[in-house]
Structures are given as C-alpha cells and as structure tokens.
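hiii, so i know i said id send this last week but things got crazy w the move. better late than never?? heres the sequnce for the chain we talked about at the cafe, plus the structure i predicted for it. fair warning i was half asleep when i ran it
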Amino acid sequence: MYLLMRGIKVQNLTFQDITDPGLAHLIGGYRDLTSTSLYRCWQITDVGLAHLARGCRKLTSIDLTDCWQITNTGLISLVDQCRGLTSVDLWRCWQITDTGLAHLAEGCTTLLFVDLSWCRNITDVGLARLASKCGGLTSVKLWRCWQITDVGLVHLTGGCRDLTSIALDGCNITDVGLARLASKCGGLTSVDLTDCKHITDVGLAHLTRGCKGLICIDLAGCNITDIGLAHLAGGCRDLTSVYLTGCNITDEGLSHLTGGCRDLNLVNLADCKYITDIGLTHLARKCRGLRSVILYSCSLITDVGLTSLAGGCRGLTSVNLSSCSLITDTGLASLAGGCTGLTSVDLSSCPLITDTGLASLVRGCRGLTHIDISECSDITDTGLNILARGSIGLTSVILYFCKNITDIGLDALAEGCRGLTSVCLSRCDKITDTGLVALAERCIGLTSVDLSWCSNITDAGLVALAEGCGGLTSVCLSRCDKITDAGLTAVVERCIGLTSVDLSWCRNITDAGLVALGRGCGGLTSIDLSRCDKITDAGLTAVVERCIGLTSVDLSWCSNITDAGLVALGRGCGGLTSIDLSCCSNITDIGLVALGRGCGGLTSIKLACCVNITDIGLAHLGIGCGGLTSVKLFGCRNITDIGIVHLIEGCGDLTSIDLTGCRNITEEGLTRLEQNEKITVVVLF
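okay and structure toks below
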C-alpha cells in the first residue's frame, strides 16, 4: 500500500509489487521525485513507465532491475520526459535493444551510470551510440552482454574516458579490447572480468600499465597465470580487493602479487588448487592489513599455512576455509590466537575439526557473529555448548550434517545465543521437537530455519516454532516426512512474512496445506514442492493466484500436476525466473505455451523426462522466454534438431543445455550446438 503524501515533497521512493494502474494512480502525488526504484516490479510494462515519466519529469535516477516487460517503447517514453537522468539500471530488461539504448544516449547526455547487465540484445552498435553521446559516463555494467566484443569496447573507451568502473562479466572480449580499455581509461579503479575466458596474461599486462590506480579487480575464470599476477603487482600497487576464483596460479604468483600489493584487504583464492602453505605465508608476511580471505577448496593448505596467516594478518575479520580438509584443531587454535577480531568463520567440510578446535576458536574470538561447521562430523553437543557460552553475539549458525548434534546441544545454543536470526540444522537427524521448542522459545528473532532431513520433527514442533518466531521469512522442511497440513497451516497463519518455503518430499502435504499457504503468505517468492505427490492443480492454483511475486518454483515429480496448473502459473506469476518440471509426466506443449506467454523472465527450466514435450513447446519457449540461460531436456525423447534450433535462435543468453537421452537429436544437431563456444552441451550415454 502506498499513501499519497499531499503537501510533502518526496524525492526518493521505492515501489514493491506495483502494477501499471497502481503506478498511474499514485504518481501524480510525487511530482518532485528525483530518484525511484521499481526493483523486480515485473508487472510494470511500457504503459506504467510512460505514466511515471509524464508525472515525474525531475527524475535523475531510476532502477528498473528485472522489469523484463519493459521494451524500447517504454524506455523511449521515459527518456522523452526525463532528460535529466544520470543513473539508469536496466538489469535483465532483456527486450531493450540498440534502438532503445541509442534513444537513451541521445536524450540523456548527462548519464553517469548505466547498467545493461543481461540485456542480451545490446551489441557493439548500441555501445558505440552510448559512447558518442554520453562522454561523461563513469560507471558501466555489461554483465552477460554476450554480443559485446572488442569493437564495442573500442567505441566505449573512445568516447567515455572518465570511466572509473566497468563490469564485463562474460562479455566476448579479448586481450585486444582490454589493451584499448587500458590505453584510454587510465582512471579506472574497478574492473570485473569474470568469465572473460579469452583474457590472458597479455591483456592483464596492458591493463596494469594503463590503469595504475586500480583498487578492485575480479579475474574469476580468466586464463590468468603467475605471469599475469606479476604484471598486476608491478603496475597496480594500490589494489585492495582481488578475486582469483579458479585461476591457474601457484605460490609463485601469490608471492608476486603480495610483494607489490601490500594494501590488500580482501583476497579470494577459491578453487586455486595449487596454492600451498608457502603461498599463504607470503600473503601473511606482506599483506598485514588483510581483513578477508577466501580459501575455499584450497586443499593443500595445512595448519602450517594457517599459523602463518594468524601470525601476520591479525586484523582478519572473515575467513573461509571450506573444504580445506587438512586443517586440524591445531591450526584453528593458532588462527584464533592470532586473529581475535574474527566475526565470520567457515569451516564447512573440514573433517578434522573437533570440539577441541571449536573451544579454541571461541576462547580467542569472542565477537563471532557467523559460523559454518557443516559436515564437521566430530563436533558434538559439548562443542555446541562451548560455542553458545563463548559467542553470545552469534546471529547465524550452519550445522549441516553435524550428525552428533542432539536436542541437548540445540538447547544450549538457544540458551546462550538468543540473538540468532538464521539456523541451519539440515541432516541433524537427532534433533526432535524438544530441541525445536527450545529454539523457538528463546530465539524469537529467527527469520530463517532449515530443518531439512530432520525426520523426527512433527507438527508439534512446527506449532511451537510458529508461536515463538512469527518473523520467519524462510523455512526449509524438505524430507520432514512427519509434517502434515496441520503443521504447515500453523506456520503460515502466524508467519505471514514468509518469502521462501521448501516442502520437498513432504508427502503428507495436500492441496489443503497449499490453500492455507496461499491465503496466509502472499509475499512468497520461492516454493519447492518436489515429490509432494498428493498435490494437484487445485493446490498449485491456490498458491499462484495469491503469491504473484513467485520467482522460483520446483514441481519435479509432482505427478498430478498438469497443463492446467501451468496455465494458472503463467497467468499469475509473470515474474518467474526458475522452474523445475522434471518428471511431471502430464505436462505437454500446452503447458509450455502458457509459460512462454506469461513468464517471459524465465532464465532456467528443467523438463527432464517430460516425455510429452515436442519441438512445438520448445519453439514457444524460444519465442516467449528469450532470457533463458539453462535448459534441461534429459529424456525428452520427442525433441528433434528442429526444436533445438528454435530454442537457440530465441534464447541468445543460453549457456547450458542437457540433451542426455534425447534420442532424436542427430550428430549434425549436436555438432551445430558445440560450435557455439558459450553453450555447454551435456550429453551422457
């Protein structure tokens, strides 16, 4: 609900779940608006945007993120009325093309910031028009704009030499384009090159020579080696944040980097599998101001490296050691002794950590607010008791697959950490209603609870949770097979702010439970009903008619769902971005037609073993859902090369397609697909 503020000048306003008529009705009362956000208001169309533009001509900033129904027509209406715009966010407005961008550039020449991420129809031509008219641009985001190449980058840098920030995540650029960027935009401080797979050490060398003031760089997924890091260290000594996820670097490269960039405060080395204790020692000795380090899956790191890190980087506040399987209690004790200011620690999949290590961590780091000890199977109630007594400021705890945790430990945690807002107890199969009652009575500020695979939880526990924690926004009950409609109803009647519900494998949930869910929780954005084999189209319809903001729906193995349910979904939930229909054997092309017409914002769809789907259905998806990036067609035996062609032609952002078991796809069809470098094709025999 929005109230008209008569007589009051409102200059900044954020809308939620508003429609064209609502916007038209309200906007007359906000003529002094200079900044507005329609973030994920997917129901807004060109009509609503035109009303906004006519009523608010003083706008300088607008956020249209995920308003996927906006086309060039709407953007032109906006620009014609609001020529003072300096900031425009068009993230995932995928119907915008070079034509719309050209009009934006010509009408709003004072633009400073523009986000075109996921606008798949923007090409080098559009970027050239933008650069020729908006020379004052300082920040441009082009994430997943696949058609942008070195040519576009040449145009952009030729006209916009004041750029300080650019995001090129997934763009089709090479070292040539990066060299041009560096030569023309020497004032850059932030560059995102995530998944720019053609960028090598050569391009990085050019960048570091031209942009010596870089502060943040993301090279995740780039073809960078130690040589590139040496260039980076030599040219950009002011760097504070470096993201190197999955890069082929070694300790030598890390030595180069830390030798030149001693002011680093964030380093992401996730999946850098060749980094050892030696590299970590270099980091610790030379970058003593480090605040955050991510070592996920750096499987060669041992206690020796962790001890070095603790000795050199005593100001650390966040450390991620997930899947560093050689870390023991000894290393954790060293970390806690040296880095007493830690607030966030991820120890998930560190199997050698026990209660002893947890005790050391708690003694040293009294300010912990977040801890993840997932799959630390030797952690027991004793460790949890120690954690609760020593870390009373905890707000988030993840205990996934801590199989030795019982109600006793949960009771202690609830008693000591009453400020908890998020708890994950997934696969803690010794937890019962008793522990859940303790949690609900003491941690009344909980907003997120994951009870998946807690098979001893019953409706009684859910009733207690609902009565104690009315502010819940996310509940996961996957495989809680004792839960019935009664427990679900208790939750949805008291926790009306729920946005995410996972009921997968809750086989006692029926349409009655879904009716209650729809009636009580109209703000749902995500629902998982996988393997809920008692629900039908009637239950699904009850949810989607009330929960129009749904973005993610999982109906896999729901054997009673038919095209009628998808028709209701397409009619009610146009903001849907992800849907799983795997093994919904009653779904046909009719259902896909409904999704294509009503859910144009879809980015992911799973149709595994939907044996009644044909090329006709895929054609409609290609026409209506142009933003699809991932499609799973495993076992869809009626799909042929023709259907795949329709899909590829319509979905320019497609990066992944699973054709396993699609027996009518020919070798020629597969070859054509594999020639597209950006699409990963899965075919298993």
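btw The longest strand covers residues 12-14. thought thatd interest u
miss u guys!!
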